[in-house]
């Protein structure tokens, strides 16, 4: 019944069979989901963030639930580049979906090293550069919040990478367009919007923060309106910059909102924890909704947002206005 | 055994003393939870909309046949408050069975089951399985709570012929004090007679830490069933890290545990 809907899309040079990908940090390296869902029905998978050396993560407690979302401070725990390329990448490559490897460093040099080493891997479609994790201490904040620093770092990584680089931006900035503009000019193939928003929760019985690092990253539907606003701002200001939108997507309708705001594809994150098949369900809901609303394809929906009608003239000229 | 995600219907929500409730759940078709063993758990989530996102983890209390299983819980936060209100016919989404179980009863060793409060389910399940296997003479239960009302499902243990030792903080049942007050003399007696015993424990973290100190001091083998915040239950969110000794500072409550060797856990 919905066969006629063309779901293919792209994020810059990266062709996608469907617009719905699994988000970094919410999908590990994919294997755990094979028991629950058809991974091949996804548009792609963005891996857990990879650093040059393995990281063991933050102290406990690391997560807590909040209204319409959750806070996490996992600490970018990962297996490191070497073990990723050897043990994790082959599984992802064999799925035939778009493989985005999320990565980060602890300083300028390790970012560039990580990009160089990862881009040697076979079957990687894109590197998603994480300059926005709130949960590492050393230097991380400047990469994600100062446009000139983000520009320099992006350019250095683009120069050494054999595959396109998508930069995942932090929402914890006052001017998201300036950040997007800086990384676009440095050669980023696109941007992922948004990472988690820093937040906090307190256990009043123990008078302690609910997570050990005090602040953590807020995800889930609570942040969707902010994510949509940022996607829309960047899409309007930088129409040539491909955007992968994310932030609290739980349904096909949520995904379509992001496409209409100007995202070329979307990622599903926190929803995977409660429902490992969320990405595939959301893809099917999106397909049905596109058809219901008369779209011939997912591409037709991208940036299709309509402005409200302009204010009628008779209201603009109020008899009470003092001219 | 591979876990699955499936829907169940509430068949009964039995209110017990002490604020405990026991949910009897039924799936429409056989599920892998039928093969669950004591210590394994399920993630449960009701129709909670967008306000409360993540499922909650519960030890399996029993899995009597291919389509049924039960859990025992107490309302603590918003998720368990909502679960306490479910009625027969309500639908819940289940993921499971998850995690690593307690070891099976071994020949020539007596299992001392140590439960504190809401930590009863995996040990009650263990006692039930021992009874079904004709091994109830090989297990003893040490069960502690705040008061008499905080101790539930005692009739089952009696019916299975499981020797049960109670401890309550107010002395209203069994010995007065924590469950370790009942356990310590038993371990000392075993040491004196050279009896081979093993401890399997589940309960609040301070209780498990106390049990761990007792067994480490005495060189008794013990397995602890832990609890941590977890969003997924299948090794992805990495929220439920457990500090351990070894090559890595953390392992995961959901996939490496929830049952850990007491020597492995890195607690003070």
From TrEMBL, chain A:
CDD domains: DHOD_1B_like (cd04740). Substrate binds at residues 48, 72-76, 130, 195-196. GO terms for molecular function: dihydroorotate dehydrogenase activity. Its EC number is 1.3.-.-. GO terms for cellular component: cytoplasm. It comes from the Bacteria. The active site is at residue 133. Its cofactor is FMN. Binds 1 FMN per subunit. Pfam families: DHO_dh. It is found in: Cytoplasm. It catalyses: (S)-dihydroorotate + A = orotate + AH2. PROSITE patterns: DHODEHASE_1. FMN binds at residues 24, 48-49, 102, 130, 168, 194, 220, 247-248, 269-270. Keywords: Cytoplasm, Flavoprotein, FMN, Oxidoreductase, Pyrimidine biosynthesis. It is an enzyme of class 1 (oxidoreductase). PANTHER family: DIHYDROOROTATE DEHYDROGENASE (FUMARATE) (PTHR48109:SF1), DIHYDROOROTATE DEHYDROGENASE (QUINONE), MITOCHONDRIAL-RELATED (PTHR48109). This is Dihydroorotate dehydrogenase. It comes from Nannocystis exedens. The lineage of its organism: Bacteria, Pseudomonadati, Myxococcota, Polyangia, Nannocystales. The gene is pyrD.
From TrEMBL, chain B:
The keyword DNA-binding does not apply. [2Fe-2S] cluster binds at residues 232, 237, 240, 254. FAD binds at residues 56-59, 79-80. InterPro entries: Cyt_c3_hydrogenase_gsu, Dihydroorotate_DH_ele_sf, Dihydroorotate_DH_Fe-S-bd, FAD-bd_FR_type, Flavoprot_Pyr_Nucl_cyt_Rdtase, FNR_nucleotide-bd, OxRdtase_FAD/NAD-bd, PyrK_electron_transfer. Gene3D superfamilies: Dihydroorotate dehydrogenase, electron transfer subunit (2.10.240.10), Nucleotide-binding domain of ferredoxin-NADP reductase (FNR) module (3.40.50.80), Translation factors (2.40.30.10). PROSITE patterns: FAD_FR. Keywords: 2Fe-2S, Electron transport, FAD, Flavoprotein, Iron, Iron-sulfur, Metal-binding, Transport. Residues 3-104 form the FAD-binding FR-type domain. Binds 1 FAD per subunit. Binds 1 [2Fe-2S] cluster per subunit. Its cofactor is FAD; [2Fe-2S] cluster. The keyword Membrane does not apply. GO terms for molecular function: 2 iron, 2 sulfur cluster binding; flavin adenine dinucleotide binding; metal ion binding; oxidoreductase activity. GO terms for biological process: pyrimidine nucleotide biosynthetic process. SUPFAM superfamilies: Ferredoxin reductase-like, C-terminal NADP-linked domain, Riboflavin synthase domain-like. Belongs to the PyrK family. This is Dihydroorotate dehydrogenase electron transfer subunit. It comes from Nannocystis exedens.
